[in-house]
């Protein structure tokens, strides 16, 4: 196989999309974040009613290591200068088994069916190709985007040649619907389960990279991006849990976030379990239900009404079965659509 520089065709020059549907386009800036967030919230209310994107999520995307805001983003503005659409091209900065670019964006529902989404996606695809075509690596490459099954973004993706390749199941356990306490299996001798601390951030990153290296689409997290996740305003280290051995090495982890602004979309408060993982050397020792059960106890003890997570429907470790035993119930399915390059 040739390197990406040799095999990917990319536009030599790429201007922002040409005007369409009453919108003109320009690069985004961090000052556009509140307006971009408003578009994301309005779009989610239609496309994914149980979700409410946070400003922190957008800020995190724009802060991805290596992302050039002036070249990797666009916003569409109306005649009054109001942002009504945006697109972000996130070149995943770590490339071990694959080079992946994630396309994120939204069009306000009031400005749909005018060709705005098609124009944005075409620009994003061109910019993604430009990013990949600079790489002298011999790896598979793909452009990815995601949405709830049946959403407009997936229909748009299908028209552009993207194919659904992975399902992610939204799972939830509502504590009010279960009167029994959450049982945590006994902790093996020599191990400790405890809340996370700032000193755990880097050890958890190393553990996450090891635990997820055989998971579909996963590439190692770089330190800056991982630190951004675990120090964001909605991060809850007090509810997150790690299992450590006698030397203090992290063997398992459950990373919890909670965003009060997202509670209304689900009808109750909840903690979101962003990652659950066990390092490969400790697999098969029962640490996943231990660390997740401890996190669920913390979430419930904090007064939150539920816990939510997303699981790869084809998770190689059978995580979905563990979650079901802890009371999680499957709900909406989100789909990753991709085009290979």
Write the layout of secondary structure elements.
Layout: H1 4-7, E1 24-26, H2 33-47, H3 55-62, H4 69-72, E2 73-77, E3 83-91, E4 99-107, H5 116-132, E5 141-148, H6 152-159, E6 163-174, E7 192-195, H7 201-211, H8 223-231, E8 241-244, E9 250-257, H9 263-266, E10 270-278, H10 287-301, E11 306-312, H11 319-325, E12 329-340
Parallel strand pairs: 4-5, 10-11
Antiparallel strand pairs: 1-2, 2-3, 3-4, 5-12, 6-11, 6-12, 7-8, 8-9, 9-10
List low-confidence stretches. Answer: none
Order of helices and strands, N to C?
Answer: HEHHHEEEHEHEEHHEEHEHEHE
Distance between the termini: 12 Å
Strand content: 25-35%
Shape verdict: globular
Give the CATH architecture of the largest domain.
3-Layer(aba) Sandwich
Largest sheet composition: 12 strands, mixed
- CATH level 1 class label of the largest domain: Alpha Beta
How do the strands line up in the largest sheet? Answer: 1-2-3-4-5-12-6-11-10-9-8-7
Within the CATH hierarchy, at the fold level, what is the topology of the largest domain?
Answer: Aminopeptidase
Proportion of helical residues:
25-40%
Question: What are its keywords?
Answer:
alpha+beta; Aminopeptidase; 2 domains; twelve-stranded mixed sheet; 11 helices; globular
